[in-house]
Each structure stands twice: as structure tokens, then as C-alpha cells.
């Protein structure tokens, strides 16, 4: 699913944030898949903010839980990037610079193609500075994450140390409180092909060689388990 303003999707006429994507765009996609296409079960793969939006969607729509076999997250975290002082200062500076510009440049946002508006990214900046995961109306998403019992594989890398550092991805994954969930951390020091950054962890030839097979095995194992139950 493409976000608004991304790729060939329609251009938004109004400001939108993560909750807009979760409650409207992503929900419409799920309704199309399950109701219009009559697909019974799916496996979800989400990168960055897509994983945040997926979490929000599932918290607000529990009927989808039984339809998802597994989830794979690439560089996904919402409230743990500002744990270290150095990163916290970068996030704070990024927030105010972005407010002046009105947008986050594509490279800073971890994209090779699309910049994000300040309105969209303000939630992410605030969550990581305040170490919370609170929606527009004060809804505490973090406290509800443990209601999602779908098995989750979270993939992060040493080169993604600003948007989705290991500590942030760990905190995000641990909030689901599911012992079946797994974290994969990639680095050249550990024998991986590169220290993947926020975009290359999903879209690169090296990712295709060594990360995609891990995800394929995860999905196949979870589908096998589901079919055996």
C-alpha cells in the first residue's frame, strides 16, 4: 500500500498524520483485501511508519487479528530513538528544523524518493522525545500494544541508528509482550553484508540476498503453524 503523496497514490489536499493513515488508508486496504477480494488470511510486511500505522490499525480493529498469520517489521519504532543524549539532541534539532522548512527531506526521513511533511512527522518527533505513543486525543497506544498477539519479526540494523536504532526497535517489539516475537539485528561486525541504513534494509541487492530469505522462512514457518492448529 502506498501512502498518500507517495508513488502514484493521490495527492492529499489536507494535512495527515500516522493516525490518518491507520484509520482510513490502511483500513480501506484491509477492507478491500478481506471483503472485496475475499482473502482469508495474510502476512503483513511493513517498513518504518508503515509498521506504526499497522500497529494503530490493529489496536483499533481487533477483528483483523485472526486474519493475520505473521507480521514483519523493517526499521520500525516509535518511542525509543531518543534514549541516548546524542540521538535525543538530533531528534530535537530535527523537529525544529523541520518546523521551519515545513517538511522532512527524503534522505532524512529514510527514503530515497519521498519527503514527509512536518505535520505528519511531528507525532514521531514528539513520541521519541517524550518516550510515549499517544494519539491526537490522548489515546495511549503503548498500553494497548500487548493486545496484539500476532507473531512479529522485527528487523533492524546498525546503520539505521537515528530513525530506528536497535534500542528503539527492541523497546517497540517488547511492548507487544509476546515471547514468540523475534528481533534480528544486522551489522558487518556480526557477519552481515553491510550496516544497512533505513532504506537499504528493505530495498537493496544485499537485502534481497540475506534479509528477504529470513523473512520468507519466518512467513513459511508461521503459515505452517497456522495450518497445523
List keywords for this structure.
single chain; alpha/beta; two-stranded antiparallel ribbon; 229 residues; 7 helices; four-stranded parallel sheet; globular; Rossmann fold
Question: Could you describe the 3D structure shown?
Answer:
With 229 residues, the chain is of the alpha/beta class. It has a domain at 18-27 and 41-81 and 136-228: Rossmann fold (3-Layer(aba) Sandwich). The protein contains seven helices and six strands. The chain has a four-stranded parallel β-sheet, sandwiched between helices. A two-stranded antiparallel ribbon has the order 3-4. Helix 2 links the parallel strand 1 and strand 2. The radius of gyration is 17 Å and the shape is globular. 35% of the residues are buried.
Report the total helices. Answer: 7
What oligomeric state do the depicted chains represent?
single chain
Largest sheet properties: 4 strands, parallel
Number of strands: 6
- Beta fraction of the residues? 5-15%
Using only CA atoms, what is the Rg?
17 Å
User: How far is the N terminus from the C terminus?
Assistant: 30 Å
Query: Class of one domain in CATH?
Result: Alpha Beta
Q: How would you name the CATH homologous superfamily of one domain?
A: Alpha/Beta hydrolase fold, catalytic domain
Shape: globular
Mean pLDDT: 89
Within the largest sheet, what's the order of strands?
1-2-5-6
Amino acid at each position: 500500500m502506498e501512502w498518500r503523496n507517495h508513488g502514484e497514490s493521490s495527492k492529499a489536499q489536507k494535512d495527515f498524520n500516522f493516525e490518518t493513515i491507520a484509520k482510513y488508508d490502511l483500513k480501506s486496504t484491509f477492507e478491500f483485501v478481506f471483503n472485496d477480494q475475499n482473502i482469508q488470511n495474510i502476512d503483513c510486511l511493513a517498513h518504518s511508519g508503515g509498521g506504526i500505522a499497522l500497529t494503530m490499525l490493529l489496536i483499533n480493529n481487533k477483528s483483523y487479528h485472526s486474519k493475520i498469520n505473521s507480521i514483519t517489521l523493517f526499521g520500525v519504532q516509535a518511542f525509543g530513538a531518543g534514549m541516548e543524549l546524542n540521538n535525543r539532541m538530533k531528534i530535537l534539532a530535527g523537529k525544529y528544523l523541520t518546523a521551519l522548512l515545513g517538511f522532512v527531506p527524503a534522505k532524512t526521513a529514510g527514503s530515497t524518493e519521498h519527503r514527509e511533511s512536518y505535520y505528519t512527522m511531528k507525532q514521531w518527533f514528539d513520541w521519541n522525545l517524550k518516550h510515549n505513543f499517544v494519539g491526537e486525543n490522548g489515546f495511549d497506544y503503548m498500553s494497548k500494544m500487548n493486545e496484539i498477539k500476532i507473531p512479529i519479526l522485527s528487523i533492524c540494523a546498525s546503520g539505521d541508528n537515528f530513525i530506528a536504532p536497535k534500542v528503539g526497535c527492541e523497546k517497540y517489539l517488547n511492548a507487544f509482550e509476546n515471547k514468540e516475537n523475534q528481533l534480528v539485528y544486522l551489522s558487518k561486525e556480526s557477519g552481515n553484508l553491510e550496516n544497512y541504513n533505513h532504506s537499504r534494509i528493505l530495498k537493496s541487492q544485499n537485502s534481497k540476498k540475506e534479509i528477504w530469505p529470513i523473512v520468507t522462512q519466518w512467513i513459511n514457518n508461521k503459515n505452517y503453524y497456522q495450518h497445523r492448529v
